[in-house]
Amino acid sequence: MVRQRKGAPKGDLDGTSQDEPESDLSHKPVPKPVNAPISTDPAMKDLSRKTQWLLLAVGSGACAAFNGVFAKLTTTELTTTWAKAISSFLGLQPGNGVVEYGIRGIFFGLNLLFNGIMWALFTAALTKGTSTTQVSIVNVSSNFMITAILGFAIFYEALPPLWWLGAALLVVGNVIIGRREEQETAGSAAEGGIALDERTIVTRAEHELEEEQGLLGDMHMKNLDGDIEVGTDIDNPAE
Question: In angstroms, rounded to a whole number, what is the distance separating the alpha carbons of residues 80 and 74?
Fold first, then answer.
């Protein structure tokens, strides 16, 4: 029988020594990648939210402008001219009604498509934005500007200077209303922050008062338990 030496280290019994460093590096902890801190700056969130509803409102106005263009192309004589050119290119008779009605049908379908996209973008802009008036003004302003450009490029429509003056006033009004509402929103947020801080202070004071009352109640119960134990020892002395 082989007796185990008293006090021998566990590593000596299986032929290994504890003093030798382990050569296997696979068991070493792998450092975890440190994730970049996520920005929680309220100013950056407000800027991102403002950029989103601005893009949505401008996109809605652009779709409304294209909607008007396709609606006009559905009924205008310019479509007849384009249909004759396409018929001649395909080797058909210039007055082919199938080609003309097909083109008008395509324009009518595009009219309905851009109308639906316009309302979808406008609804999303209202959801992201903080002011219905501001979103509506941006939508109408972009609609006016893009309509003017498309009208000049497609229908060769020259707008009078009075129209451009009205469009400029509309943009200036949008800027004024936007700044005023931003100031009102900032003031409301500051007032709400002060009220929240006051309520937080009151809540903490109430919580501390409840903790103190709980501690006093525990101390009172311990004193009662001690009095009961002392009275029991006096009444029933150990024999």
Answer: 10
The CA-atom distances, in angstroms, between 172 and each of 127, 165, 177, 203 are 24, 11, 9, 47
Tell me which residue has tokens 């937080």.
200
H/E element holding 81?
Answer: helix 77-89
Instruction: Tell me the residue length of the chain.
Output: 239
CB 49, CB 128: distance < 8 Å: yes
Cβ-contact 181, 130 below 8 angstroms: yes
Give Rg (Cα) of the chain.
Answer: 40
- Token pair recorded at residue 8: 């021998």
Is this structure's pTM higher than 0.70?
Answer: no
Distance CA 120, CA 107 (A): 20
- pLDDT, one tens digit per residue, over 113-155 is 999 999 999 999 999 887 888 888 889 889 988 999 999 999 9
Q: What whole-number distance in Å separates Cα of residue 81 and Cα of residue 89?
A: 13
Q: Among positive and negative, which fits the CA dihedral 218, 221, 227, 228?
A: negative
